[in-house]
Each structure stands twice: as structure tokens, then as C-alpha cells.
Amino acid sequence: MTDTRYGDTFEIMSKANGVPRSAWFRTRRLSTWHRSYAGILLVLDYAAVILADLTAISLLNKATSGIKPPVLFNLLVYLLLPLAWLIVLWGNGAYDRRYLGIGTDEFKRVSRAALAMAAVASFIAFANKAQLSRLSVAVALVGAAVYISIMRYVARKALHLVRRKGVATHRVLLVGTLPEALEVHTAVSRNEGAGLVPVAIHVTEGYSSNSDSDTPVPVYSNREVVPLVREVGADTIAVCGSASAEPGELRRLAWQLEGTGVDLIVAPQLTDIAGPRVHIRPVEGLPLLYVEEPTLSGVAWLFKTLMDRLVAAIGLLILLPVLAGVGIAIWASDKGPVFFRQRRVGREGKTFKVWKFRTMYVDAEERLAALVDQNESDGLLFKIKNDPRVTPVGRFLRASSLDELPQLINVLLGEMSLVGPRPLPAEDGDFLGDVRRRLLVRPGMTGLWQVSGRSDLSWDDAVRLDLYYVDNWSLTFDLTILWRTVGVVLGSRGAY
């Protein structure tokens, strides 16, 4: 199969199509951003290991009164040990392009490499009966893992920034029915950091070229897929929904792509379900996709509950002076009550009264009727960016999220969690349909909605994020959201 539209002959299908061939002669990938990025990671990882070694050496020097280390020691610290780390990281897939730039798999592989290095160090020390400082070895190993993770996190943030400018991305051709392709387009376009940029849609069925439907990218039909990839300048094909289930078609497409350097992605109709719940189990050559139930009980859930109560208790004690200062400022502004309490819906539909610092004037509820027409929210909550009912002190509290701190009382009482869906007022509806699924978990002080835009989000997006959290909850997910909350609060994004 050849493409001669530009006056020359370009081979699309490899002559060795479908036949095993040496890996040394495989065509390079069209998307090449990962090569330079992996090179940067190599340098950063090397520097991180040396930094950890220097930290350990500083402790060792203090314990040995600054004795100058021998040449062999320097060779081990500055060359052999960093190279060993790079080899172990490579062996654990920490430079594999499939795990770079998004998700937690990259950091899981760093953790595995750290465990492997700890095992190797322990074995060498035992075999040689070396008299090593346990503290220095521990600092060197743990410090290396921590420094590597921090530097990779910074590198990932830099990658996401350049991807927002259209650099280091994958140009994707979506293949499937128009509704399925548009759904995948919407999903991948939400996160620019993923680096997937749809450039065209190839419709497999149910589409007329005379259709007047408005689409975000050009739509093609009745075309050969592989030549179309070259025409639109794509380097990745994403097969969407039911198109991936066509008997033999996906396999034949994979054969056609061999030797072209084009990546193949399968996007099944499993929207908003995270990887840990999805498992592929082959049976007689048929890859069966299993979707596990959400984990909303068990040891991990018990640990989450205990952690919530413990952190809330410690937080209230530590923040007591701050809470007292905020309370005095609110009372002094208009001599009104310090706290605002409102009925909210909690886990399994149970109602409770949420604790918040009052940010509005005392007569805010009476003035609400006159402002209904100015509501900027399309959901159950009433929101106005410049709400005239908010006091000057209240504006500061909302921008800094200090008004949320009394909710630690609700967390301590088990009515809320540190992380969870946003608590909605009990008077605003009976939570029918998909929204009711949010009630499977306790509402949270922060959540996926908060770190993704807060009040700037539409109601549909807020519900989607809350449901995603319920369906894909994990302790790691909670810690990630808590970490992202710090940046959101400091930046005052979506707070009004």
C-alpha cells in the first residue's frame, strides 16, 4: 500500500508486515519527545543520587570527625553507585515512555528500584562483612529515592507546561463511531498534561460527508486508516469504543502499523474508571477486560477513617491560635456570630450540620431572593463571583480557604473526611440519579473537584469528578489530592 498524493511514493505498510523481525531494524516511533525527556531524567537521577550520597557523607563526617575518605570511596560515591541506580531504574522500566509524563506508574517503578537497591546493598554488606554506618546507608538509599521522585515530579510539571504550548505531544487520529470518538476527544482534551492532541476523526459507520454537525476536528469516512494517518500528520491511532470489538479488524490494523512508527491505542467504553480497577485476563487467546468493584471498605478504608480522626484532632490543636484569631476578626467586623452552620447531606444520605466560619453578613439569607437571577452556577449551589453579601473579612477567608478550617470538627466527629466529594446542602434536592452515588462515601474538606477548579467548574464537571473519586478511591489518590490542595489553596484558584 502506497501514498502518491504528493508526487512521490511513500511506503505505508512494512514489507515484513505480520512477520517477526529483528528489533535492531524496527522503524523508530514518529513521536520522539520521550527520547530527550528520558535523557533529562537520566541526568536528574544521576544528580539526585549524588545529592543523597553527599547528605549521607555529611552525617558520616560528623560521626568520624571529618576524616578524608579514600579515592575508592569517592569512586563508589560519585560514579559506581549512581550508575548502579540508573541501571536498576532502567531495569524497572523507569525510563519506559509508556509511564512517563502522567500517572503513578513512573513513581511506583522508582520505589521498586529503591527496594532493589536496598536488597543489593544489604547482600553486598552481608557477603563482605562490611562495617558500614547503618544510618548513612539508610540516608543514602532513602534520600536517593526521595530526591529522584522530587526531581521527576518537577520534570513532569515542566513537561506539562510545554505540552500546553503544543510541544512534546502525541497527535491522535480517533477511529470509531462519531459519538464514541467525540467522547474520547472530550476526555483526553480535559488534561493537557497527558499530551494527547486529537487532530482528526475517522468514522467507521453512521456518518454522512454531507452532515452539518459541528465537530472540534475534521471528520473523515470511507478512507483507508493508515494513509489517513500520514495525511493528517498523526503519530498515534486511538481506536474508540465498539470499533475495538470488530472481529479481526484491530489485529489487522496492528499488523498494518508495524514498521510505520505509529502508536496504537485502544480506548474502550469505560469512561472515568481508573487503571487499578481494570485488569486484562486472557482466556484462550481472548483478552477479557475485568472491571473490579470500588474499594469502599476493608483495611484501607479503616486506615482512612483513623487517619482522618487523628489528623483532625492534631490539626485543631495546632491551629487553635489561628482559629481564635479568625473568630475574633469575624466578630469584630460586625459583632455577628463567628460560625455559620448549615444542614448538609453526608454518607448514605444522613444529614449533619457543617461547621464553617461565617463569611457573609448576618442578613445574607434574606437578601438571597433578590440575587437569584444573578446565579452563575448551573447546579445545586448558588454562586456569584462578586457576591455583595460577602463581608470584607469573608472575602479574605474564602480566598485563603480559612473559612473551611472549622470543618475539622466534622471530620473529628466522623461526619466528614479530609478528602471526598463536596458536601451539598440538604435543602437543594433529593440527589436522584447519578448524583446520589456520591453518598457512598463521606463528603470531604477537599476533593478532586477542589483541585480541578473549585467554583469555576460547571455542575456536570463537578459531579463527574466526584463520581470519579467514589469509583476510584485509594489511599494514594487521597494523598495526591491533599498534596495538590496545597498548591490550589496557595494560588486561591476558583475560590470565591
TrEMBL record:
Entry GO terms, CC: membrane
Listed transmembrane segments: 36-59, 71-90, 110-128, 134-155, 310-332
Predominant location category: membrane
Superkingdom of origin organism: Bacteria
Keywords assigned by UniProt, alphabetized: Membrane, Transferase, Transmembrane, Transmembrane helix
Molecular function in Gene Ontology: phosphotransferase activity, for other substituted phosphate groups
Subcellular location: Membrane
Residue ranges annotated for the Bacterial sugar transferase domain, each copy included: 304-490
NCBIfam families (alphabetical): EPS_sugtrans (TIGR03025)
Name this protein carries in UniProt: Exopolysaccharide biosynthesis polyprenyl glycosylphosphotransferase
Species of the source: Rugosimonospora africana
